[in-house]
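FORM 12-B: Structure-to-Sequence Request
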């Protein structure tokens, strides 16, 4: 990558942080600034951008529960949104063509159809980046948004194949052999350990077995990366693998956002049309919100998921490039689509950052549209009889639960965001409920009585523990709060926030080992 690209990206990211915007907004602006200065995208930058998107979808696949995609609130919402939004967009664009819009003159009937289809999709890259930045990718609304995006990706692959932009090879059905190969890959991942070999395994699985193999078969390579991630998801080391690939994926995605800004030079006509199309983004998010409400989700969940999806997708650029190559659209539409996608990112970022504040303003109106019986995952959480609550049921959380329940005789409830872990722990006799304590909506659902006198923050993420503490303070519950941290710098932050007892995980383990060793020596 050229040094100018790195300098511009770094400066744009710093400026965005100073304005309290996600860095990706700064990367987009940096791309447009480079474009204005006469820079052009390079093959190296395009390759970096493709790698970033592939690794992003691979990490999504690693966290994917395929059964969740078949739920009505996911598959039904994605299908209904496409069925409703695409005809409306086609009618709007056809009206603009009839009114004399220059960029649509001389095009056939397929032009509004293609553009309507392209603009009906939401951005996977943007939504996942926003959710990751807020540590809410595993919240209920985050899982719903990602599920809808994955279903949209499936629609996209069907379209690309049917439109002839990526016709599968004769041997493409042989990719089904990856299914019996998956158990072997999972065992290899679990035995390979951590460190550089784990990262290399992830890159090999995502980019060779996934992206490259599917691309050779004439199928969208990004889908291959997603499929390989989903096949590896049941492995015990899938979560550590996702964390190992995370930083690499973030670095490559910088190239993706720069490439969007460099893809077309804004002109007055293109900019005006892009701004007009941008007005449709809030309507898109509102339609998603209405559909989620219709599928029995609470107002907060529906609004936040709709806000994450209220943007335009980079997939629109793929459709536009294919249509221009076949003469179905004028080349100027590439600039319009690039600007529309980029502007939707810039407009959506602050809206998502202030999602909670927007919900509190709209809550009375949204609650009137809530269904009487919400979905199980969005219902109030009853922990009647509990005197202690452990937030996060990993190894540390399970140890705290067992100590409180067995040694101190306190009726204890564990809270865990991973549905598979909840089922596994419940089968072992733990009283555990599904919920993400870092999600403010969790505290709105939790029926926290005055009987609860002790709360333990045992989530692996320091941001998650802080978010849980903020949620606890908002509901005004008074209890003794203890926290476990993995990094020394988090100790003072929790103490400053008023946590009663804070312990460093590794320091405590070291003291326990030393004490046990001394007792063993003195007993000889």
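FORM 12-B RESPONSE
SEQUENCE OUT:
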């Amino acid at each position: 990558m050229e040094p100018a690209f790195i300098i511009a990206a770094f400066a744009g990211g710093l400026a965005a942080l100073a304005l309290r915007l996600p860095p990706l907004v700064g990367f987009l602006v940096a791309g447009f600034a480079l474009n204005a200065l006469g820079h052009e995208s390079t093959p190296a930058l395009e390759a970096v951008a493709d790698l970033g998107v592939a690794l992003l979808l691979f990490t999504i696949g690693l966290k994917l529960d395929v059964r969740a995609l078949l739920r009505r609130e996911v598959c039904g919402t994605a299908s209904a949104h496409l069925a409703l939004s695409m005809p409306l967009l086609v009618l709007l664009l056809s009206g603009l063509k009839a009114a004399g819009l220059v960029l649509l003159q001389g095009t056939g009937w397929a032009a509004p159809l293609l553009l309507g289809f392209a603009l009906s999709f939401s951005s996977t890259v943007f939504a996942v980046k926003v959710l990751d930045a807020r540590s809410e990718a595993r919240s209920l609304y985050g899982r719903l948004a990602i599920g809808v995006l994955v279903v949209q990706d499936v629609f996209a692959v069907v379209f690309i194949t049917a439109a002839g932009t990526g016709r599968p090879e004769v041997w493409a059905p042989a990719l089904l052999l990856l299914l019996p190969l998956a158990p072997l890959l999972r065992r290899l991942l679990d035995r390979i350990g951590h460190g550089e070999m784990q990262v290399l395994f992830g890159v090999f699985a995502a980019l060779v077995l996934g992206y490259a193999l599917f691309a050779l078969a004439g199928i969208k390579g990004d889908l291959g990366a997603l499929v390989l991630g989903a096949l590896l998801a049941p492995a015990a080391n899938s979560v550590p693998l996702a964390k190992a690939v995370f930083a690499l994926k973030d670095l490559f995605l910088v190239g993706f956002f720069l490439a969007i800004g460099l893809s077309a030079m804004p002109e007055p006509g293109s900019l005006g049309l892009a701004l007009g199309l941008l007005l449709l983004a809030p309507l898109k998010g509102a339609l998603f919100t209405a559909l989620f409400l219709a599928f029995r989700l609470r107002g907060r969940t529906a609004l936040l998921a709709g806000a994450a999806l209220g943007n335009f997708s980079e997939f629109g650029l793929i459709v536009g490039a294919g249509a221009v190559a076949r003469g179905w659209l004028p080349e100027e539409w590439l600039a319009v689509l690039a600007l529309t996608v980029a502007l939707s990112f810039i407009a959506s970022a602050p809206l998502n950052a202030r999602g909670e504040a927007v919900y509190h303003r709209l809550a009375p109106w949204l609650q009137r549209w809530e269904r009487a019986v919400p979905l199980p995952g969005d219902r109030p959480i009853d922990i009647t009889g509990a005197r202690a609550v452990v937030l996060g049921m990993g190894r540390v959380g399970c140890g705290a639960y067992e100590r409180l329940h067995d040694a101190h005789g306190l009726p204890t409830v564990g809270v865990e965001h991973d549905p598979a872990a909840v089922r596994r722990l419940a089968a072992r006799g733990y009283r555990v409920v599904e919920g993400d304590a870092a999600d403010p909506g969790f505290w709105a659902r939790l029926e926290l009585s005055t009987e609860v006198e002790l709360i333990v923050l045992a989530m692996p993420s320091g941001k998650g523990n802080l978010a849980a503490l903020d949620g606890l303070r908002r509901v005004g519950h008074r209890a003794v709060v203890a926290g476990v941290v993995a990094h020394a710098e988090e100790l003072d932050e929790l103490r400053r926030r008023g946590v009663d007892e804070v312990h460093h995980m590794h320091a405590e383990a070291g003291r326990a080992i030393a004490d046990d060793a001394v007792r063993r020596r003195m007993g000889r």
